[in-house]
């Protein structure tokens, strides 16, 4: 996405006053099909922070994101948005406060630009009539992910990586204080993966709360402000990348061996 993302981030600063919000989770139990997946989760998503959620397959990472967004019912515990219990908010109100980009998505038979416009739905009154500001925000979002030339292309004719960029643009167009992304680097080549992480970090630096479920540990260690490591439905450790690396708990849970090296650009982590 390159330097264009930096330029277009300025256009989103006008909404920064709405971004200073926090989502808090207390003693959360949740799951699906009668199975308890999350067991006593305590966590908060802070403005101005990129939080990486890590853990083995099946540990509850995606369940956590879906429950916080109200897509799965919680069994017990509390989820508060700006100190308001989530059950006291209407679906549209939740959609104005947080965006959820799932790992698996349908590919509708529409153009890329029309899909990105869907991100504006929570901000529209019925009947949905797009305003000039909605089209401008969509254009900015497409430019931020480097996909403005794809606006008129049928979504189902794009590559997996191009589709990922369009869905990311839709998430940005929703213009919420918090963005949850489940495996946002899927289908992307290495260069685009780095650009997604850099964009996430810049959005956090502008005041948003960015939450990413990731499997690529080195990306998480490089770009996240904090990491929440989940194992068997519980948070086994949360802290800065350096804290998790030094504790070796990340290596134990994920069954990998990690190393790090100091560079002019900061610490870089690698698999041994």
Distinctive features:
single chain, 272 residues, alpha/beta, six-stranded mixed β-sheet, four-stranded antiparallel β-sheet, 10 helices, 12 strands
Give the strand order of the largest sheet, numbering strands 1, 2, ... along the chain.
Answer: 6-7-8-3-9-10
What is the rounded Rg? 18 Å
Distance between the termini: 30 Å
- Based on secondary structure, the structural category is alpha/beta
Largest sheet: 6 strands, mixed
Question: If helices are DSSP runs of H or I spanning 4 or more residues, what is the number of helices?
Answer: 10
Strand-residue proportion: 25-35%
Order of helices and strands: HEEEHEEHEHHHEHEHEEHHEE
Q: How many beta-strand segments? A: 12
Q: How would you describe the shape?
A: globular
Tell me the helix content.
Answer: 25-40%
Overall pLDDT metric: 90
Task: List unreliable stretches of 5+ residues.
Answer: 13-19
Q: What would you say this structure looks like, in words?
A:
- The strands form three sheets. The chain has a six-stranded mixed β-sheet with strand order 6-7-8-3-9-10, with helices on both faces. A four-stranded antiparallel β-sheet has the order 2-1-4-5, with helices on one face.
- The longest helix is centred in the last third of the chain and has 16 residues, at 190-205.
- The model is unreliable at 13-19 (pLDDT under 50).
- It has 272 residues and is of the alpha/beta class.
- It has helices spanning 4-9, 61-68, 91-97, 112-117, 132-144, 160-173, 190-205, 217-223, 241-247, 249-254; strands spanning 23-32, 35-45, 49-54, 74-81, 84-85, 98-101, 178-182, 209-213, 226-231, 234-239, 258-263, 266-271.
């Amino acid at each position: 996405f390159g330097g264009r993302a930096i330029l277009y981030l300025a256009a989103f600063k006008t909404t920064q006053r709405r971004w200073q919000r926090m989502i808090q989770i207390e003693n959360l139990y949740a799951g699906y099909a009668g199975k308890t997946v999350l067991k006593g989760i305590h966590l908060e998503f802070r403005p101005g922070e990129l939080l990486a959620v890590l853990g083995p397959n099946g540990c509850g990472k995606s369940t956590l994101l879906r429950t916080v967004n109200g897509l799965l019912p919680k069994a017990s515990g509390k989820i508060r948005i700006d100190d308001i219990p989530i059950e006291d908010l209407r679906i549209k109100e939740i959609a104005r406060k947080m965006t959820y980009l799932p790992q698996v998505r349908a590919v509708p038979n529409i153009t890329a630009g029309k899909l990105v416009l869907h991100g504006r739905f929570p901000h529209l009154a019925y009947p949905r009539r797009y305003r000039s500001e909605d089209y401008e925000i969509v254009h900015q979002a497409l430019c931020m992910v480097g996909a403005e030339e794809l606006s008129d292309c049928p979504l189902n004719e794009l590559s997996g990586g191009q589709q990922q960029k369009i869905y990311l643009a839709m998430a940005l167009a929703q213009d919420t204080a918090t963005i949850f992304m489940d495996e946002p680097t899927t289908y992307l080549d290495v260069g685009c993966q780095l650009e997604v992480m850099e964009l996430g970090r810049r959005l956090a630096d502008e005041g948003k709360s960015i939450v990413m479920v990731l499997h690529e540990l080195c990306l998480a260690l490089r770009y996240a402000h904090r990491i929440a490591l989940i194992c068997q439905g519980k948070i086994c450790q949360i802290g800065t990348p350096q804290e998790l690396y030094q504790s070796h708990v990340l290596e134990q849970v994920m069954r990998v061996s990690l190393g790090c090296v100091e560079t002019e650009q900061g610490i870089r982590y690698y698999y041994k």
